[in-house]
Amino acid sequence: MYVIDLTHYLDERGAIAPQRGPARKFADFVTTVVADATNFDRPEETPGPLCFKCRKRDQHFVATAVTEDDLVIWHCVACGTQGQISKWQGSFWDLS
Length: 96
Prior knowledge:
By secondary structure, the chain is α+β, with helices and mostly antiparallel strands. The protein has one domain. The protein is built from two helices and four strands, in the order E-H-H-E-E-E. The protein has helices at 21-38, 55-58; strands at residues 2-5, 62-66, 72-76, 82-86. Strands 1-4-3-2 form a four-stranded mixed β-sheet, covered by helices on one side. A hairpin with a 5-residue loop joins strand 3 (72-76) and strand 4 (82-86). The model has no long low-confidence stretch (mean pLDDT 92).
């Protein structure tokens, strides 16, 4: 399980800090998960973000949600990768 503090991937302005490479790709994935999980107006049938581990191979989507204790959680049914994201509130990707 990935345990992620969103602020570790952001600069002082709140933008994604890593500019390129694997850290940037992972930060893009994490922020997309936050946006998906906090978009409460999104239709249920809309697929979630592509899994960062199996997206190139199989195009699998992750399921996202917000827990009662304000963690964004995600899970890929295909590969089993899962995680939780904290400190996302008030970020650019917080659509709640």
